[in-house]
Amino acid sequence: QLQLVESGGGLVQPGGSLRLSCATSGLTLNLATVGWFRQAPGKEREGVSCISSSGRFINFADSVEGRFTISRDHAKGTVYLQMNSLKPEDTAVYYCAAHLALGTMCSTWDDDYDYWGQGTQVTVSS
Questions:
Q1: Quick one: DSSP state of residue 112?
Q2: How many CB atoms are closer than 10 A to CB 45?
Q3: Of the residues 13, 24, 48, 70, which has the fewest C-beta atoms closer than 10 A?
Q4: With 0-12 CB in 10 A as exposed, 13-18 as middle and 19+ as buried, what is 1?
């Protein structure tokens, strides 16, 4: 059982940056594919990005390609989502999710994930 904890959300002006973190106790997250998702009020949950357990494969939604990056620090057992050039339409609750699997691929489909964090609010507004 993984208990994921997201942090780093907040209020930022358009064009600004935030870095979200996803962690769990110990280094178990190193054994998992990790995805980031977001859900805005009145909208369906959207896959934003994912990273394989090795970190060698990453993927992004078209809406964030070129603005967001994803990385993981195996020494800390943490996955990061760096969000740059933020837009008001990026406003949402952001969730990290994990699927325990050592593999070379990852997915931005929420059905592929077994464990979810509680979410962190990101608000982009002037």
A1: G
A2: 14
A3: 13
A4: exposed
